[in-house]
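Quick log. Single chain, no ligands specified.
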Amino acid sequence: MKKTLNEIAVFLGGHVIGDGRVVIERIRGIDDAGEGDLTFVANPKYRKKLETTGASAILVAPATVCPGKNLLTVADPYIAMGRLLALFHPEEEEIPGIDADARIEAGADVSPEAVVYPGVHISRGARIERGVVLYPGVFVGRDAVVGEASILYPRVTLYRRCRIGRRVVLHAGVVVGSDGFGFADPGRGNTKIPQVGIVQIDDDVEIGANTTIDRGTIGRTWIQRGAKIDNLVQIAHNVVIGEFSIIVAQVGISGSTHLGKGVVIGGQAGLVGHIEIGEHVMIAAQSGVHKDVPPHQIVAGTPHAPHREWLKMQACLPKLSEMRAALAALQRRVADLEKKTEKEQA
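-> predicted structure:
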């Protein structure tokens, strides 16, 4: 694909500084870009690379100045880059049809406008809506629903009665609806509590490879609209993930914990069960969250603390040995002074 910088500016609603007639053929990173390439700078710390990049044009934020370079200013360069990547690298359209080597049980309702690859198994009572793409090895359990234009990549497992909304993307190896980890008399009898609920995934959710989402013990585990979940995340029974939340790889969320709208959780964080995380909370990577977090807070550490307090504690850690030695010296001085005072009083 070839487009002039002026054409791209119209597409993005941006403003050209420099030669708008320059032709863009590719989108590349700032270090690798050359003639015919467009790159971007979204993080201010990379602005120093504006002068050294060989790109024909650069997406930048408003008020960015770099004499001699062709700039395209947009409100958010990263979002603009995403739109351009979709324009220059469109997804290949799938041809609707059900492969003869797919296994569809009697009583399943599969739209003729869906794409069903070889090796897919769709159980009785399941419903597959128009525009759905099921790649090889996908299993859809009894009475499960996959909404319009959703994509299930290879080896996705969707257990019985679980519900997937529209335009949902489940990457390879995702498991939706496995039993929640519910056992009475733990460590002794380990009596299994039947997990009879479901998982509900709302519209426009994307879930990364090998993530697991347990079904509710009773009721539902609920991933709300627009949430994005990374690879290798564990979400336990009856968890609620609020709209547009972001959960990064290797996070574990224990049962019945509720996340509000727009929560962001860094990688390898762990959340205990039965707590409430308020809307727009940010949880730093590797945090251990042990109790409720009010809305609009930033927390870090294990056990978690307000981010600023955690930073102060971290700053003290390298000095602990010095502080310990100083404290011991002070204790000795105080003890000597006390002995001296006792002698004088005697």
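The chain has two domains: 3-88, 98-308.
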